[in-house]
Every structure is written in C-alpha cells, then in structure tokens.
Amino acid sequence: MKVRILEFIEGAKRATGVTVIIDVFRAFTVGCYAFDSGAARIIATGGVDEAFLLKKKYSNSVLVGERNEKIIAGFDFGNSPTEIIKADLRGKTIIHTTTAGTKGLVNAVNADIVITGSFVNAGAIVSYIKAINPDHVSLVAMGYRATISAQEDLLCAEMIASSLNDKGHYFEEKIASLKDSSGRRFFLPENIEFSPPTDFFLCTMVNKFNFILKAVPRFDGNIDLMKISL
C-alpha cells in the first residue's frame, strides 16, 4: 500500500486511490458530531449560494458552515462542534459549507473513493482502508483556509499513515500540544463566540466515533456524506 500526504485544494485535485480529505479544525469533526446528534444526512457543498439553493429544496434542513471561521449570515449554525452537540438535529438534512474541508471534497475528482478525515474517527478510517487494502492512499491535509499548512491536519495525516503502515507511533502528546500552537486560536477571548475552547477538546477526542463518512458525488455537483459504521 503506497501512502502519500498532500495539501490544499490542489492536493485534493491530485489525489488518487482511496482519498481522505482531512479537516480537523473543524469541518469533518462537525460532520461526525452531526450524525451522532441524529442528523439524517449531510450534503457538503463548496459555495454559499449553492447552500441556500439546497435549503430551498430540502424542507427539513439546516445550514451549517463558516467563512473566515465565523457563521455565515443567514445560516442556522456555525462550523462549531460545540453548537452542534447542543442542537436537536434528529431527522434533519445538514447542508454544510466551509472554507477548506467541503471544498476539498468537491475537488477530489480523480479519487476512486473519498472519505473525510478527523481525529474523532481516525481509527475507523484506518480500519476501513485496511479492509479495502488499496494500492494507493492519498491523505489530503486541507490546512487553514485551504492555503496555510495546518499542524492538526498534517498530524492527523501522519497518524493515519503510521497506523496504515503498522508503525504505531505515539501521537497523544503531539495532539495535546496543539493547544499551544495551531489550536491556540480557540482560547483567545476575541474568538470565544465562534471558536470556543470546547471546540478544541471536541476536535481532539481521538477515536470517539467508530464510523466513517464516505463522500458520494451527487447529480448536482455537490456531495452526499454517508455514515458507514464499522
């Protein structure tokens, strides 16, 4: 099994084989918590205008997402797992758009299989890939706003790669140290309304969920995320 680590939207476009689009802070962590909170489905889209159009088509739907980390005007929720775990999402269709993660999904056009990546279901991701045993695996770290390398995304990619290669490196200490580096923004007073400290801890709960989110292209160019339990 050949495993390579890529970055950003360009990396998503270049990804082949089984592809994991990684966005730890916070898109694909939010997706996992949304399903755990009872959401019936998640539709990922790259654009805000497209998200509003989708909401008109699905009556029992809510808009979740951000631009520049903050909730988008007219949306029901921001891209915050703290908000999601407090919401009643039972039976709801989640329409989700973010600066980095969801754009990575819609641009992974050369991949055979696409799944989302985060710490909270990293173990399930590894189990799923090992069961398929593909020749090629692409791990795409989407980064901060899809333009700047993000330590958390690269660390998640390294952790998955290490597990796929049965190297068993110790990552808990590195994940905890993100609080003082790329995760520091969650602890700044000016960010508390849209990026609270609880988001950091919810995003770094390794292997909380034993399911993956598989991306399935839709007829309209958007992505359905399917929950597959392991």
Structure description:
With about 230 residues, the chain is an alpha/beta fold. The chain has one domain (about 1-220): putative 2-phosphosulfolactate phosphatase. Helices cover about 35% and strands about 25% of the residues. It has helices at about 10-15, 25-35, 50-55, 80-85, 100-105, 120-130, 150-165, 170-175, 195-205; strands at about 1-5, 20, 40-45, 60-65, 70, 95, 115, 135-140, 210-215, 225-230. A ten-stranded mixed β-sheet has the order 1-8-2-7-9-10-3-6-4-5, sandwiched between helices. Strand 4 (about 60-65) and strand 5 (about 70) form a beta hairpin. Helix 1 (about 10-15) runs parallel beside helix 5. The chain starts with a strand and ends with a strand. The model has no long low-confidence stretch (mean pLDDT about 95).
Average pLDDT score? 97
Bulk shape: globular
State which percent range the strand residues make up.
Answer: 15-25%
**Which residues form runs of ≥5 with pLDDT under 50?**
none
Task: Please give the largest β-sheet.
Answer: 10 strands, mixed
CATH topology heading: putative 2-phosphosulfolactate phosphatase
Question: What's the total number of strands?
Answer: 10
- Could you give me the name of the CATH homologous superfamily? ComB-like
Question: Which percent bin holds the helix content?
Answer: 25-40%
CATH uppermost class:
Alpha Beta
Number of domains: 1
In CATH, the architecture is Alpha-Beta Complex
Q: Helix count, per DSSP?
A: 9
Widest sheet, order of strands: 1-8-2-7-9-10-3-6-4-5
Distance between the termini: 21 Å
User: Which radius of gyration do the C-alpha atoms yield?
Assistant: 16 Å
- Which secondary-structure class do the elements indicate? alpha/beta
Order of helices and strands: EHEHEHEEHEHEHEHHHEE
